[in-house]
Every structure is written in C-alpha cells, then in structure tokens.
Specification:
4-stranded antiparallel beta sheet; alpha+beta; 170 residues; SH3 type barrels; 7 strands; 3-stranded antiparallel beta sheet
Amino acid sequence: MRLACLLLFTSLFLSACANEELQDLRDFVKDTGSGMRGKVDPTPEIKPYEPFVYDNAIGSPDPFKPRKPEAKSGDLPGLNQPDMKRRREALEELPLESLKMVGFLYKDKVGHAIVRSSDGKLHRVKAGNYLGSNFGQIISVTETEIKIKEIMQDSAGDWTERMGSLQLME
C-alpha cells in the first residue's frame, strides 16, 4: 500500500513539473543564439626566422661581454668615485625608496626639508647632506622637492652619476 501511495505521489509531483509555465523562458533561450555568427580574424602572417651568423660580423661588439659607455674626453677612470673615508650619515643606511619628504622650513635663511624614514622618525636635511644607500648627496632643497645626485657602480666597476628626487607628500 505504501508503495502504491509513493508511486502515486511521485507521478503527481512529476506531472506538476511538466506544465507550460516556463515555455517562454525555453523559447527565449532557444531563440537567443539564433542568428549569431562568430567571426574569427585570420591568423597573422609569421615571418620566417632568419638566423644571424656571428662569424660574418667583423667589427661588431661581442654580445656576450658587458658593454661600457664610451668615455668622454677628459673623463678619468674613477672620476666619480665617492669618498669612502667620509663618515656616513644616518639616512645613508636606508634606501631612497623608504624616505618621504613631508615638510619644508627655513632656518638661518637656508631651506631645510623634513624627511620621514621608514621607522617613522623625522629628520631635517639641507643641501650637501647625504641620504639613500647609493651615496646620494642633496643638490638642492625647494618647498616641494629634494634633488639628489646618486653615485652608483656599474657592472664594469666604473662609478656613474644618476639624478633623482623626493617629492613633497601631500
């Protein structure tokens, strides 16, 4: 008897699901894709590889040796080398990226910048002070910017100058 009731209940339940209430949704799904045709662009033309024979390149630099920029007339090796005997300042222990200019003030008619280090301490600097890990010397201090000349060693061992700056944080 239970089995008969269960079969009757199941058949009634399934017949209730077979109504046409969702026919408009089925028609929409079926019709949405009709008329759509995708277009695929043709593949680009691939140029054939042309090998380069290095034996024929007389006078070309060796690609496996590091290249140095040509020395300017009057440049001497080690001309830009920093003073290694100079006592290093506190802000030279920190990379330039971890320093932020947060203020500006005048003291004795000289412009000073207020710099915040990554540990949250404030430092007062002026032109001539050093900061950053690349022997960065402050060239000038304005109300909005600190201009810095850094001296870095390249792969060939020569010292080169690079200009950088710290902008005032708003």
